[in-house]
Amino acid sequence: MNFTWSDAAYFGPEAVMGLTFLLCVLGDLVTRGRRHVVPFGTLLVGTAISLVLALLHPPVSSHAILGQMVVVDGFAHFFRLLFLGITFVTALLSWSSREIMGRDREHQGEFYALAAMLCFGMMVMAESADIVMLALSLEAVSITSYILAGFARFSFRSSEAALKYVLWGAVSSAVMLYGLSLFYGLTGATSYEGIRAGLSGGQGGMALLVAILFVMAGIGYKISAVPFHFWTPDVYEGAPAPVAAIFASGPKIAGFALMIRFFYVALVQDDSQGTLALLDDVQWPWVLAIISAATMTLGNMAAIRQNSVRRLLAYSSIAHVGYMLMGFVVLSANGLAAVLFYLFVYAIMTIGAFLVVVALNNRVSGEEIDDYAGLGFREPLVAAMMFLFLISLTGLPPTAGFIGKFYLFAAAGEAGLWWLAILGVLNSVVSLYYYMRIARAMYFTPPELSGRVGLAQAHLILLVVLAVPTLVLGVFWSPLKEFADQSLRMLLGGG
Amino acid sequence: MISTVIWCLFAGMTVMAALAVATSKNVVHCGFGLLFSLLGVCAMYVFLGADFLAATQVIVYVGGILVLILFGVMMTHRITATDLKSELVQPVAALIAAVAILVLSVGMILEQVWPAKEHLDPITPTTHAFGVSFLTDYLFPFEFASVLLLVALIGAAMFTRDSAGEDSDHV
């Protein structure tokens, strides 16, 4: 057993977020739920402290801590910063959201406690180095998500969304746990390293295939890849809009982080020449390449038919998972760096697009595309931002989305998966059509009402804050790319 | 030999009871089916020498969750009169998925050579080892699980509260 106080130094940001969760709960109790500013402030301060701690002490090498349960390395650091950023932004955007706070701000401050817990869980997900921690952290994020999905308790749709989410989640985590137990049965180890060591002795075969498929079912549900995506549109539509913004970014990205670490530590061997070799006869990249192709195509095809902006964004987020899986299957450091880059960019532009939905939700009654008619005349700034996010989601220059997609397609092409890269480009063209339907409604349809919509100041500021990196990363992307490359070095180099 | 027969009896009980849960349209029957299924699993744990797991299975699932379910059924007005919805949705896709899972699982069981022990040791208490590893190697997962349970509690309290803001007055 090696459990020392020095572990705490590496685990600082996570510990602070865990503590923030408890303090939020406590703050809400002490003020008897009447002063929402207490949990809100606690969350903001906690996230800020955690962010400062993470930035002050970036890990310089890979540290397996807390009894080898979690690993803090550059990879974990990358996602840590991303999750903290997401939590900070979503906390700010939900403060002025009517759906979260209620018309008379009567809703509970529990939202902020749950947001802290979600962040804590996601950070641990990205750091898990043991299937025990994998299952626990995934479950923590899932359970928090179920509660958040049903947060608007008196809304029928919110409750329905929560129930659907729970049922799907319960089934897929059960399947995943079965898969994980097979890994243990095959290798007698629970740590990723131990599983890799056990499998390299030639324990493969049918059971390994089943184990990988079943674990993929659990992770596929978390990142909403086809065919485990059915819950996504309903949950995004039913859950309060700020929660949908979190779901589309946070847990999905955490799912990717968990998947990358699990597959690339437990099931891949590094021949220390920059290329990665598969363990024995496990051809999981083929399974994933097919899932990737199906995910982006089905997501885009379904998005075309949608009239609700939120469902459209939900299906488009499924399509984006397909693009990102492309970088995951190519078994190269370049491919993974492209995924990390895209995850970062994806978080910014998706939260941006959902933020527009949140901001308008307070004022405009519906969420159909037609309800956005004439927005370009009524709220030029908001419409321009939305347009920017949509362009970035499509992947057109000069936005960050273009650079991200470029790296992904390049990585796929480099690995000889040309069919997948071409399919990705074709899908991007299709996505242009439905994204531009929103743009057309905003700019080419005359508004039914005139005058300004009148949006919360906080939302406008946040929109600008998110729009700036979307543009800047489109022309000046090398720092982020280098950061992504560097983050992966410890994961892949250190084995 | 005799232990194999007993094992098979318990396995059969588990599977049959689980089938009853899945097919029955009466909530009460489902509940009792679940009882036998869970008890069958418990018996298997005993056979495998997992004494702590077996006890936990009885205490948590049979004694706790199942009793709660049955109480819930009893206290809900006329719940036995409502027909459970069990209709076929997308039979083709479901059939393909089910057959695929069946083929994979059966193939796996028949084909795979598992690195298993030849002989099980006579049952020795595992609780001591559990306690030690919970507070040493597995301390972090243990604590993390407790935070996880706290979240679940908060969620349950939130969903079942009458209406927001009122109940904080009558503490």
Task: Give a verbal description of the structure.
- The complex is a heterodimer of chains A (495) and B (171).
- With 495 residues, chain A is an all-alpha fold.
- Chain A has a domain at 271-495.
- Chain A is 74% helix and 2% strand.
- A two-stranded antiparallel sheet of chain A has the order 1-2. In chain A, strands 3-4 form a two-stranded antiparallel ribbon.
- In chain A, helix 7 (131-149) runs antiparallel to helix 12.
- The model of chain A has no long low-confidence stretch (mean pLDDT 83).
- With 171 residues, chain B is mainly alpha-helical.
- Among the domains of chain B are: 1-84, Up-down Bundle (Four Helix Bundle (Hemerythrin (Met), subunit A)), CATH 1.20.120; 138-171.
- Chain A binds chain B through residues 1, 3, 18, 21, 25, 32-34, 66-70, 102, 106-108, 110, 113-114, 117, 120, 124, 130, 132-133, 136-137, 139-140, 143-144, 146-147, 150, 153, 182, 185-188, 203, 205-207, 209-210, 213, and chain B through 104-105, 107-108, 111-112, 114-115, 136-141, 144-145, 147-148, 150-152, 154-155, 158-159, 164-165, 168, 171.
Secondary structure: elements and pairs:
The complex is a heterodimer of chains A (495) and B (171).
Chain A: H1 6-10, H2 12-30, H3 37-56, E1 63-65, E2 70-72, H4 74-95, H5 98-101, H6 110-127, H7 131-149, H8 156-187, H9 192-199, H10 206-223, H11 231-238, H12 241-266, E3 268-270, E4 276-278, H13 284-304, H14 309-329, H15 333-361, H16 375-378, H17 380-394, H18 400-414, H19 418-444, H20 457-475, H21 478-493
Antiparallel strand pairs in A: 1-2, 3-4
Helix pairs in contact in A: 2-3, 2-6, 3-4, 3-6, 4-6, 4-12, 4-15, 4-21, 6-7, 6-12, 7-8, 7-12, 8-9, 8-10, 8-11, 10-12, 11-12, 11-14, 12-15, 13-14, 13-19, 14-15, 14-18, 14-19, 15-17, 15-18, 15-20, 15-21, 17-19, 17-20, 18-19, 18-20
Chain B: H1 2-23, H2 27-47, H3 51-75, H4 91-111, H5 127-135, H6 139-160
